[in-house]
Amino acid sequence: MKAVFMTAAGNPEVLQLQDIPQPTPGNRELLVRLVAAGVNPLDTKLRKRGTFYPEQMPTILGCDGAGIVESVGVGVQKFRPGDEVYFCYGGLGAHPGNYADYTTVDERFVARKPQSISFVEAAAAPLVLITAWEALYERGRLEPREKVLIHGGAGGVGHVAIQLAKLKGGDVATTVSSQDKANLVAELGADKVIFYQETDFVQETLNWTNNEGVDLAFDTVGGEVFEQTFPAVRVYGDIVTILEPKSNTVWKTARNRNLRIGLELMLTPMLLGDEEGLQHHGEILQQCATWIDEEKLKIQVNHTFPLEEAAKAHHLLETGSISGKIVLMIS
């Protein structure tokens, strides 16, 4: 089978198409013929700095996959050949990822693909759906009628977070950098659009909340934005980030406002071998599939590339200026 191998840490050209043997499913595993694979910022970070398992090189990147079950292990109960599935598993440097024709994955960690969308859209969805779900519903404990500030609302995680917040009954403000992105987030349900390059997002947020601040802020950008957001959150409110806070972060405003800090890393179950957590990811994806088929949730894909052009996909993602998701088309 064909697979794109990361041969070493470095620039996108370390991604090389190779022929390798097809894997065999274990007892509770599915052999999935991949139709598409999502490309995430995580992939580019691992490619540049090295994977979590540098001793297991070369490796195949790509956590997000969507495809058709080809065969099943003897212990599989829920799936059969021909089933269409999507999932977020592999690609961290240990278990092979999804930049390939085939992969294996435990049946507990996958969900049936939404019937109403393509494999390309399904492959773009898992990591961002799980990240936004955990950040808003679990780390941030979002409740109906609460006000939420989402940074980078037109991005991969951001555009899903807007929709999940609205599904929970929240009011959403979000930051964007252009009119095209403003149009997108408005279509997704954002109640307040803030052009962060033209105005002070903290003051805009305070104006929107009668000077109280939002109940929950979700930082998908990182860097200085995390600390800058503290005064935009109400006293005793929540702020959740998907990036590691800078070592020189000044916490005084957060402490004075008694903010609850949430750190979201949806990779934790994979990194720790937490099967219960991975099964929960499958359950999140199954609920999201229902919402997608009910037309309550949309996945924005803006660019696709054939598998052999994975390096070009990485180059584009690293420009940092795209909205929506990038997907590799495999078969």
Write the layout of secondary structure elements.
Elements: E1 2-6, E2 15-19, E3 29-39, H1 41-49, E4 59-60, E5 64-72, E6 84-88, E7 102-106, E8 110-112, H2 119-124, H3 126-139, E9 147-150, H4 156-167, E10 171-176, H5 179-187, E11 192-195, H6 201-208, E12 214-219, H7 224-228, E13 233-241, H8 252-256, E14 260-263, H9 268-272, H10 275-293, E15 301-306, H11 310-317, E16 325-329
Parallel strand pairs: 9-10, 9-12, 10-11, 12-13, 13-14, 15-16
Antiparallel strand pairs: 1-2, 1-4, 3-5, 3-7, 3-16, 5-6, 6-8
Helix pairs in contact: 3-4, 3-10
Task: Characterize the structure shown.
The protein is an alpha/beta fold. The chain folds into two domains: 2-125 and 299-329, Medium-chain alcohol dehydrogenases, catalytic domain (Quinone Oxidoreductase, Chain A, domain 1, Alpha-Beta Complex); 128-263, Medium-chain alcohol dehydrogenases, catalytic domain (Quinone Oxidoreductase, Chain A, domain 1). Helix content is 30%, strand content 27%. The chain has eleven helices and 16 strands. The chain has helices spanning 41-49, 119-124, 126-139, 156-167, 179-187, 201-208, 224-228, 252-256, 268-272, 275-293, 310-317; strands at 2-6, 15-19, 29-39, 59-60, 64-72, 84-88, 102-106, 110-112, 147-150, 171-176, 192-195, 214-219, 233-241, 260-263, 301-306, 325-329. Strands 3, 5, 6, 7, 8, 15 and 16 form a seven-stranded mixed sheet that branches. Helix 8 links the parallel strand 13 (233-241) and strand 14 (260-263). Helix 3 (126-139) crosses helix 10 (275-293). It is globular and about 60 Å long. The mean pLDDT is 96.
